[in-house]
């Protein structure tokens, strides 16, 4: 993994390259940023750069024996720690390290949900436990294999339990020579303040739509229009964009779902509403979340079409034709409430709420918001 394999984050890449080039590498760093921003692949690229035997100002050479090992996450001086499900037989990351390597190499932008699906541990509690912390201390007490750095890379340190966090804190205060801690977090506010005070933070930003779209076109062969729509729905999260590629839920399918929903919400033919609810409740959670994301974007475009610069409206073709007909039903009186309803339903779907109840409730509320009152 090299810096060039990581999407965007140009400022952070330059900062990391300068650290290595000027030999000013802190003993502990925190790569923090929102999910899908690339903090894990960037941390791996940095570790690869540190361990490389033929470093360049731009990063690792990519060809030396250390780079070959680092690219497979098998370098003996690169120790990986990540959340697992604790059991009587499984107490630390070593048990799942082969699976973690495979999951990362398949998708460097994976999230915790992806990882737990990989190990068939959905809906179980992710933990970095006390035994893991003790194992870290043991590993870091050894001499490095190749005489350079010993690197401990911990993905999602916010999942440490309190006892593990306190044990890690001790070694962060007095690390051994040439030992580098790299913490990779999406929720640094959940870490102990004493840990935060002992790490140099590397903040990463949400990816820009153009960066995601460019990657989708270059690496995945999507057309400009397809890539831009995916990027818009991904909202800065490249992992979401990759999931869309895998599930192929964009285009006319997603558009027609939203259009049918709004037409039914307006007319409220109960039999057809119920059929729509049944069909869409059976879809996967990610598809349901994307329905709400798509709706939020359409509402935004409606407001722009009605009150702003119509040239900024992103939709074209059949989508724009629908927008021109639908926009009059979205106004300053109901816009905020529509946004609130779609946002809250996205939140509830993420937390495994019953989709049939959510969709039926949303139909009723949208009918009240967009349909004209019936005359008595």
Short synopsis of the structure:
This protein has about 375 residues and is α/β, with parallel strands linked by helices. It has 17 helices and five strands.
SSE map:
Elements: H1 10-21, E1 28-32, H2 39-51, H3 65-71, E2 78-81, H4 97-106, H5 112-118, H6 130-140, E3 150-155, H7 162-173, E4 179-185, H8 193-196, E5 200-203, H9 209-220, H10 224-234, H11 238-247, H12 252-267, H13 270-281, H14 285-307, H15 317-326, H16 335-350, H17 355-370
Parallel strand pairs: 1-4, 1-5, 2-3, 3-4
Walk me through what this model shows:
- By secondary structure, the protein is α/β, with parallel strands linked by helices.
- It folds into three domains: 3-203, 3-Layer(aba) Sandwich (Rossmann fold); 209-246; 249-370.
- It is built from 17 helices and five strands.
- β3 (150-155), α7 and β4 form a beta-alpha-beta unit.
- It is elongated.
């Amino acid at each position: 993994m090299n810096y060039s394999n990581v999407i965007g984050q140009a400022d952070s890449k330059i900062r990391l390259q300068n650290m290595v080039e000027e030999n000013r590498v802190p003993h502990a760093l925190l790569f923090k940023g929102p999910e899908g921003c690339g903090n894990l692949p960037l941390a791996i690229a940095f570790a690869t750069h540190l361990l490389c035997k033929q470093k360049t100002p731009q990063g690792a050479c990519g060809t030396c024996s250390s780079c070959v090992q680092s690219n497979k996450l098998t370098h003996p001086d690169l120790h990986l720690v990540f959340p697992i499900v604790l059991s009587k037989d499984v107490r630390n990351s070593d048990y799942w390290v082969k699976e973690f390597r495979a999951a990362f190499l398949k998708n460097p932008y994976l999230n915790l949900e992806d990882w737990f699906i990989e190990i068939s541990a959905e809906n179980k509690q992710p933990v970095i436990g006390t035994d893991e912390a003790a194992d870290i201390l043991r590993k870091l007490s050894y001499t490095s294999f190749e005489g350079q750095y010993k690197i401990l890379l911990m993905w999602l340190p916010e999942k440490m339990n309190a006892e593990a966090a306190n044990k890690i804190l001790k070694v962060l205060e007095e690390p051994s020579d040439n030992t580098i801690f790299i913490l990779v977090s999406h929720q640094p506010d959940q870490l102990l303040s004493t840990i935060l005070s002992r790490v140099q933070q590397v903040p990463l930003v949400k990816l820009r739509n153009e960066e995601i779209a460019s990657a989708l076109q270059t690496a995945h062969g999507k057309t400009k229009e397809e890539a831009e729509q995916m990027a818009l729905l991904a909202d800065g999260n490249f992992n979401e964009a990759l999931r869309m590629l895998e599930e192929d839920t964009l285009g006319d399918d997603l558009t027609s779902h939203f259009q049918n929903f709004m037409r039914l919400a307006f007319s409220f033919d109960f039999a057809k509403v119920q059929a729509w609810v049944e069909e869409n409740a059976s879809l996967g959670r990610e598809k349901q979340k994307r329905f709400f994301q798509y709706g939020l974007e359409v509402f935004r475009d409606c407001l722009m079409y009605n009150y702003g610069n119509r040239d900024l409206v992103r939709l074209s073709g059949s989508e724009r034709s629908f927008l021109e007909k639908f926009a009059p039903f979205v106004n300053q009186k109901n816009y905020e409430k529509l946004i609130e309803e779609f946002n809250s339903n996205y939140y509830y779907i993420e937390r495994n709420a019953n989709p049939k109840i959510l969709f039926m409730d949303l139909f009723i509320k949208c009918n009240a918001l967009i349909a004209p009152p019936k005359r008595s």
